[in-house]
Amino acid sequence: MNLQSDTAAAVRRLYGCSARQGLCSLAVLCVFVAGATWLQRYSLIGLFAAILAPMLLACTVLLLGARVCGARFGWRAAWAALPLSVAGGALAMLGPYHAWMRMVGLSGLPDLQVLACAFIVGMLALGLPLWQVQIRARAQQLAELRHAVLAAELKALQAQIEPHFLYNTLANTRYLARQDPERAAQMLEHLIAYLHSALPDMRSRDSTLGREFDLAGHYLALMAIRFGQRLQYSLDCPPALAGMPVPPLLLMTLVENAVKHGVERKPGPVRVTLDAQQAGEAVAVTVGDDGAGIAGTAPGGGVGLHNLRRRLEALYGDAADFDLRRTAAGVTEAVLTLPLMQMNEELAA
Predict the structure, then answer these.
(1) CA atoms in the 13 A half-sphere facing the CB of 124
(2) pLDDT one-digit tens code per residue, 208-238
(3) Which of 32, 157, 196, 292 could bridge to 266 as Cys pair (CB 3.0-4.6 Å)?
(4) Residue 274 in contact with residue 255, Cβ under 8 Å?
């Protein structure tokens, strides 16, 4: 973010005006002068001119500085030019003010009072808006910096997922190649097809729930070749939720954990389920398995689940949730609760 160029743009927006706005201001000024003349309040006209002229001079100086200097015109330059131009304009108006007062046969205010009125009113009228604009600009800059840091962190977290996922998949293929070469060849064919679909998503900024279900289905098909009849699986993603945007590879961590902790650690048959259901303004995605369970392990304490929680917090804040539990029926469930709204595209970019 270029703070100087933003300063110049803010000054032009704050102190500039269109032709229509200028004409409206001139009309108001004429009405004021006409009213004061009709009421014979000539001293008000003189004091008003002594206050208004420094403000107009300050606006002109700031606008010229923003236009001429461009990106070099920063907040320090604006704050230095504002009081100097207001004070200079007030000093320059002392002579015309007293000349006017003598012309209408009145005694004017002392110089110090005229200068104080012109300076205080000018700084309040022009300085307070400038201060508010500067605060908003700094807050926006800090927000953009936080977004940039968060986006970099998300990319790093996603980069940690990629080698972990590929290593596990290739290790499973190598294992099967030693045990059953014919089935290993089938698995390689499925692996090639899977990677052809999955690799683009690994570098993509976002995905959809339907696509993540498809990738999980490919992965479970590969694992079914390895484990044979021991692994049964089912997937259920309602068509109405298939287009919902989600971070890429968000579900793969949970599906891999179900295979690793549920299927590999239990000698008998294991069923892995993956389903999505809408619950009000949220969607609950559940990965379940009736395998070995989470006994003897730290629930949710792995690196993959830690990264998953950090990605959820960064992308959704408090609107998303993750829960890992063991039901009374002996099923381990990893439940993702995601809001129906789209995730922050700026952070996911």
Answers:
(1) 8
(2) 899 889 888 888 888 888 788 899 999 999 9
(3) 292
(4) yes
31 class by beta-carbon count within 10 Å (0-12 exposed, 13-18 middle, 19+ buried)? exposed
DSSP, collapsed to helix, strand or coil, labels residue 326 as strand
Interhelix angle 209-227/181-202, nearest 10 degrees: 160
The pLDDT value recorded for residue 1 is 44
Q: What is the pLDDT of residues 268-288, one digit of tens each?
A: 899 999 999 998 889 999 999
Please report where in the chains the tokens 């300063």 appear, as a residue. 7
DSSP of 253-301 = HHHHHIIIIIITT-SS-EEEEEEEEEETTEEEEEEEE-SS-STTS-TT-
DSSP 98-165: HHHHHHTT-PPPPHHHHHHHHHHHHHHHHHHHHHHHHHHHHHHHHHHHHHHHHHHHHHHHHHHHHHHH
Confidence of residue 150 (pLDDT cuts 50, 70, 90): low
**Other CB atoms closer than 10 Å to residue 202's CB: what's the count?**
18
CA 170 to chain centre: 36
61 CB-near residues (< 8 Å, 6+ apart): 81, 85
Contact between 74 and 4 under an 8 Å Cβ cutoff? The reply is: yes
DSSP string, 46-68: HHHHHHHHHHHHHHHHHHHHHHH
Q: What is the pTM of this model?
A: 0.54
Percent of the chain with pLDDT over 70: 82
- Is the separation of the CB atoms in 348 and 154 below 8 Å? yes
Residue in 313, 241, 244, 247 with CA at minimum distance from that of residue 278 = 241
CB 58 within 8 A of CB 127: no
Model confidence at 10, pLDDT cuts 50, 70, 90, reads confident
